[in-house]
Batch of 2 targets.
Target 1
Amino acid sequence: MTVHSEPVQAPWDRAGAGSSVDVEHEPSLALHIEDLTVSYEYRPVLWDIDLDIPPGVLGAVVGPNGAGKSTLIKAILGMVPVAAGHIYVFGRPHHRQLSRIGYVPQRTSVDWDFPTTALDVVMMGLYGKLGWIRRPGKAERQKALEALEHVGMAPYAHRQISQLSGGQQQRVFLARALVQDADLYLMDEPMAGVDATTERHIIGLLKELRSRGKTVLVVHHDLQTVSQYFDWLVLLNVRIIAQGPMHEVYTLDNLRHTYGGQIRLLQGLAGALATDGDGEAKPGDGRSAGDGGAAALGR
Amino acid sequence: METVWDVLTDFTVRNALLGALLLGTLSGVLGTFAVLREQSLLGDALSHAALPGICIGFLVAGSRQLWPLALGALVVGAAAAWCVLLLTRHSRLKSDASVGVVLSTFFAGGTVLLTYIQNQQLPGQAGLDSFLFGQAAAMLPSDLWAMGAVAAVGIGLVLVFWKEFKLVTFDPGFARSLGWPVRLLEGVLTSMIALAVVIGLQMVGVVLMVALIIAPAAAARQWTQRLETMVLLAALFGAASGAAGTLVSLVRPGLATGPLIVLCATGIAALSLLLAPRRGVVWRAVQRRRTRAEVESGRVLVDLLQLARAHGDENYASAQGMINAVYGADAQATLVRLEKEGLVRPVAPEHGTGRHWHLTPAGQEAARRLLEGRRDGREE
């Protein structure tokens, strides 16, 4: 577990290195979060989060239902109102760095019956760089086609998106993030509900991104594969339970803390977590931190 | 009775027809986004809630001019939408129940106000009740200008901010991650839909206006897999319904325009839901049958192969009774189909009764491939 060496920003010190002031802060870190608190209808979903992610790591965010994993990702992207705290991306306030962040939302967050093609969805990743009103042209089409090729989906470029399998839809979302050409990638359960082939494909892609110097942070649900796929681990249950290099953080003790002693041994893990979607918390879910009051932020 | 030609050359008729075309086009374009954003019920609440707004607008302005009435409809409609949001957020009602409660409350209030006004014998109130079911003939040239303005702004916005509206409709979360003002864009879309509803009230009426928003878009969705085409088709369907309904109601005065327009629109929608390729009910039923037949053919082939292998002879002929035992009456049709494809052949029984079937070499090959595919599937 890495310990914070930073002098912590006092919550009342609004004029300090607040998100409205554009000063460099911890530029050597890909992601630096201080005191982040997000609440939903007076319940803390994230509580007093201090988080550091060095550049070039392939990190996983792991925790039980309602731990705030998706909310953490959304907070970094400025998608949810923040009750307190500061978020820095490559040393600058996050909302000024959105063009350097690529995002893969949960696959189930959109209606796949929307009348559009795989290629069109991938081109949406370029909308941010295009700016207002301008339409995507030949260059954008080409980039999107290359990204589809990269995820092995080129033959499906003109397929209507509802006619793709779950794994193929997920790869379309990944291709959309690829064309964003970001430095920091945030992905919300990209391997949930995909077939084994797609999972291998995705993990290969993540490792390739890391080898190109990108920083990748992934919400992951499978405790059995987490240590094999990732090199950095953030254990989250409303609070940060532990964070750091995989070999230091991936201990039974830490996992037990995160899941509230509910896990038996790794053997039983897969079964116990099979129902781990992002919906309501199971009634039997114990929690070690945050008094178990955190509801999953409704998507 | 006037002929259609007399009607068409009449000035007020041309006004009404032009208005209907504009309104239908606008409704189709904006309705596409309303349907894709699953906001149909909100449009319903808005149009029903517009009735008290129209009455209040009339009472305040003292005349039946479009702008005060439209303003009243918008303000009260927005209040109703706000009530739906508050109810959903702070009570245990789900959103469909909230919409239902708010819609009927506002509509009841509007009806009370309308009957009150009618009993007061106020000057200029004649024809106010045409807002219930719409009356194209009541349209003034100034109304046409208002319609044109709203249609120009609405369609213009969609053209200019095409990619923005598309992304916000498909994946608002991703749009927000790009730093876009998603709330603003959604607000603009919703306001435009509300404006289209309000501007159409005189022609179609508060009760049915929402159908003109939903039906053309729902019909268009059936025929295409691209948003561009869907918007164009919805505009076309909307304009056609508007023009057709208006024409009929002008030729036969006394028939309310709104229901006629809506019947045209829902007629197109019903045909589309039934007949469209890929998504239509008929097409899918045919497809399902075909798939079922294919699956059953495959199973019969594999069964024949396994029966033959159990007898140590791939050319072994199995009694049809054994196939019937598993597939019932369908077996006959399946076997005949397989025979036509040259995969099975009937043979006279060596002893006993009933027809026997054996696989042709092609049939053996097909069955073997199916069996292998099945095994691979199980391994994965």
Note: The longest strand of chain B covers residues 344-347.
Target 2
Amino acid sequence: MPRRADINSILILGAGPIIIGQACEFDYSGAQACQALKEEGYRVILVNSNPATIMTDPSMADATYIEPVKWRIIEKIIEKERPDAILPTKGGQTGTQLRTRSKSAWYFG
Amino acid sequence: MVKQGLNCALDLNRHGILDKYNVELIGASCDAIDKAEDRELFDNAMTFIGLETPTHGMAHNMEQAHEALEKIGFPCIIRPSFYPGWYRRRHCLQQREKFDEICARGLELSPTTELLIDESLIGWKEFELEVVRDKNDNCIIVCSIENFDAMGVHTGDSITVAPAQTLTDKEYQILRNAAIAVLREIGVETGGSNVQFAVNPADGRLVIIEMNPRVSRSSALASKATGFPIARVAAKLAIGFTLDELRNEITGGVTPTSFEPTIDYVVTKIPRFTFEKFTEANDRITTQMKSVGEVMAIGRTFQESMQKALRGLEVGMCGFDPILESGLSNAKEVLTRELNEPGAQRIWYVGDAFRQDWSVNTIYDLSGIDPWFLVQIEDIINCEKEISQLTLDKFEQDYFLHLKRKGFSDKRISQLLAVTELEVQQARQAMGVRPVFKRVDTCAAEFVSSTAYMYSTYEEECEAQPSERQKIMVLGGGPNRIGQGIEFDYCCVHAALAMREDGFETIMVNCNPETVSTDYNISDRLYFEPLTLEDVIEIAELEKPAGVIVQFGGQTPLNLVKRLEQAGVPVIGTPPDAIDRAEDRERFQQLIEKLNLKQPPNCIVRSVEESIQQANKISYPLVVRPSYVLGGRAMEIVYNEEELKRYMQESVMVSKESPVLLDYFLSSAIEIDVDAVSDGKQVVVGAIMQHIEQAGIHSGDSACSLPPYNLPEEVQNEIRDQVTRLALELGVVGLMNTQLAYQDSEVYVIEVNPRASRTVPFVSKCIGRSLAKVAARCMIGKTLEEQEFTKEIIPNTYAVKEAVFPFNKFPGVDPILGPEMKSTGEVMGVGTTFAEAYAKAQMGAGDVIETSGNAFVSVRDRDKDAVVEVAQRLNSLGYSLVATHGTAKVIEAAGLPVIGVNKVLEGRPHIVDMLKNGEIQVVFNTTEGKQAIADSSTIRRTALRHDVYCTTTIAGALAVCDAVEFGNNMSVYTIQQLHAELH
């Protein structure tokens, strides 16, 4: 079976900052994923807020957003880029606790 | 706990965004994620396929607690739900006596009056399997991993070994079948997953602990341990390929990826901790992960890989060094505790227990470490005893080989013989005892591998086959730690890429399995080896590189520079003497004077008396620190003689050999970081970054703005001039980072580091040129002119870098910032204004700022003037002001409405009560001096625990006002587009 022809562009979600329990291993795997998809001819769109990563180097994706990995921001990126698919499994685990939410919160964690 | 990537995808799904824009989730389905994450769904799924999970129950009252106990039995673990300090309030119970009491207390502590009661698996053996599955249901096990530390220690904090060492083939096959069944049942259609098992050593009972339907820390380790690129393959499977269709690159495509990796060596991973940074934290390792990095080592035997890992960890150990003080009267108690309640150094205490002739059984009973591992360590300690009774001239070739095969370093042998490392090295080499290099190839040498991914061992056949090409070798940074993280790895990777682009053969040496630099694709040849003198010299002598780059890996390779040069290894770039000139206090002072620059008044002292004398000359406040440290360890600000005395007596052991530095503290300065690059003749500034927090906060912990957001242009020009002169005078060839301070119209030079800094990747992303690549090319003799990098690039947008802290992992630690670095990572926010960039940086860092409600303000005397502006802005943003009485007076005097509240010491109701009751939405708290900091720490700790945004500087408070004012209306930018606008 060749690669899927019904999708052309893929959005990859990165892991954000290095914290305890989520170190740079997600940069390593994310960078591999970007390269693997790019060489198959897909348009790769990447979001990651961590500038110290190799995956956010401009050559790694076709469009690189160094922006917060939060759904409200991702929505804006989806609206702009219109990807066909999202690959979320390179994002890892953040150690932050679930934030308590209130109506007046300016944005959600 | 949330999973950022996955959680974000679930959020998008929940808010209907995936449907709205018709975006498909690939590589995982929402159902599979839910099934793996939700405990009940997971339990049901496992029961369905006949596998067990740990029994557990939930209780909202004592009756339910007793019911749960009936089902679970003893020993069990009790913890309150949603209680932030739960990991300290876990109780492992052996009998009934205390059950009621602890349950009652737990119910009280939990905000939802809920208890979780689990079957205790403490002491069980722990295994992990890395599985990859494709859409045709082909499954392979990439690697099995065994935890050296038994259950009860988080797998991220455990020493782990691959492949599993203590399973029989039959047991392994059972785990294998179970892991594959789990993937099928959870519904991971394509990609990699990690399945964790616990096995009861008493009766062999097997339970599934969890599974992660995604790449994880363990899969990165498994990739590096086997050479099988899990993430790469998983990405290809997600777009429709199957395992048999893909070729495994590492064998040059000889094998398909459906060929299950086989390994003919042993891999050991040891975590690295930083408890010395968080002295108030509980330093025992538990089910809450606390390590900040890890080292991996490869050897032909468990003993060899373990001893290589120990020396690669860079904690001052070169093997099983003794750690127990000799002649300790309570040695037995200390050992018992260290073995039973593990801390960061348990592995060395195990060695010490054997030195004290403790038996394998005793150590096993206390530690739960499998006897097979213990016997291996016992044998190493017995060897040590034997060595220490010999002299070097009695060593014969066979004996040397015998020791090296067990992984003994030259240094450890030299310690045991009481000779120098060099003597051992020379004796060894004279006998022709040299390492050979084997390849990591996924197929145990069944096929010839074209990939040069290597490790050393002491055997006959060397598979290295060095070429005759011109080579550049890059020394990496070793395990991540606070102060030396991924930023340095980024620089190493870029150096290797640049050298490859320029036609050199590139050689990478590193031992950190988490990083990109240890991906075998990044360099032509990868040596997965500890960064010690012995290991690096052996590689250099085999490969004979034309140049070795040491300035990108942080302090690790720099520590080796002098001795590498003595050994004739060609170090390129800035001469090591320039590093010494910048680091040596007195030489640096001469440099500053020669260039007619300014630094804060300072001196070096070697005794307590001298420090008091000198302090009076310089005057307070002072920054005090031991000489030669990275990351600001043990650095403090003292405001008077009493604090200075305490510091000199308690915090550091001052002596002739380890002097202490005193610097006048520029308390209201703006701090500036500059990264520059030089070819030796010309200097180009990479960027000037203005710190947002004022002086006194470690540069790695401070947020910074590029370009500066309110630093006058003429000051920036003065800084450019000073940095240029410094780089030329030092003879920098490559990168240089300078930290400066601006106060009362004067620019002061605080620190110069002629090497890569942690801001290099951030700067490179902002200006669209890789500074590390430019610097590497300077080192091989290319001028900046030739590289067309002759002018500073100043972006017309703002970028803010914000630090991210691990405080929530260390309950009880005061989350105040100071001169000692505490952050583990960073995020960047980009915007057309400073406010937008800062707002995004806060958001990326995971901080939620409530935009209405009560703002609590309490500031030190020195900030009483500045607090008025903060109060005015908060007021006009619609917050109600709450302040401690002193601060309230100032705010009131400025004509603003404010409610006064007691400090904790002033009696209840006080500010901490308000925080606990949810009556405070943001905290602005500045403080200084040891006592005042201690008095106010409960405020900050409570804010942290209740997720209330807290900032501890005035400058930070003003920036937060900017961000809140800006609001939520952010735009998104690609860096490709931002860079296009710059060039």
Note: Chain B touches chain A through 111 residues (CB under 8 Å).
